[in-house]
Design a protein that fits this description.
- There is one protein chain.
- The chain is mainly beta.
- Helix content is 7%, strand content 47%.
- Strands 1, 2, 3, 4, 5, 8, 9, 10, 11 and 12 form a ten-stranded antiparallel sheet that branches. A two-stranded antiparallel ribbon has the order 6-7.
- It is globular, with a radius of gyration of 20 Å.
Length: 204
């Protein structure tokens, strides 16, 4: 049997940032509302954070224990509408007014996006749960001869869901094989819902 060809192509683009508000995140259930598209994407930094601790015995390292601490997310978008801010940060948008309070609580959200590779294929991603509790960076300046457009940057912390410890699902289109029917079907409508990998039923 021929060896499987692994495709490694550099990232070269980012688009289609979606969020979906969580309606359930418990030990037994995970569910979200229908995903909503945010503003046009400019760039994103997604950083998984892990800690490690060495265990020693017999004057040497016995093992290294690692644990997932969360994922830091920083996304720059073209601009945020008041409706986006209400969704992301739990602020009140009513009768055309956006009202911010010190008591606003950012809701739990799932975050989806796709990033382009040099070969023209995409990598599709969903982060299962997190909050943009760090708010938004707004930058303004007076208009001069040369007009400079400003963007918005949002920062959040994402983490594993309570049901099963999963925190992210990814499909790399570059490496899909003929037998990867479920993954192929998922990316045709990736942002219609927060995607799940169906678990095979084990019988015996």
């Amino acid at each position: 049997m021929a060896a499987e060809t692994v495709v490694r192509s550099r990232y070269c683009g980012l688009r289609d940032i979606y969020v979906a508000k969580l309606t359930q995140n418990t030990q037994t259930a995970y569910a979200t509302e229908t995903p909503v598209k945010l503003a046009r994407a400019i760039n994103a930094k997604i950083s998984d954070k892990w800690s490690s601790e060495k265990v020693y015995s017999d004057d040497g390292t016995e093992e290294t224990i690692t644990s997932y601490e969360g994922t830091e997310v920083e996304i720059e978008v073209a601009t945020l509408a008041p409706q986006d801010r209400a969704l992301l940060f739990g602020q009140l948008y009513e009768n055309g007014f956006l009202v911010k309070s010190k008591d606003d609580l950012a809701p739990e959200l799932a975050l989806g996006y796709r990033t382009k590779r040099r070969n023209g294929k995409y990598e599709f991603v969903w982060l299962y749960c997190g909050k943009f509790g760090q708010g938004v960076d707004d930058e303004h300046e007076t208009q001069a001869e040369k007009v400079t457009g400003k963007s918005n940057t949002i920062k959040g912390d994402f983490y594993d869901r309570q049901k099963d410890g999963l925190y992210q699902i990814v499909v790399d289109e570059s490496n899909l094989l003929d037998e990867h029917a479920d993954a192929k079907a998922a990316i045709t409508d990736w942002f219609s819902k927060v995607q799940e990998k169906e678990q095979a039923t084990v019988t015996g």
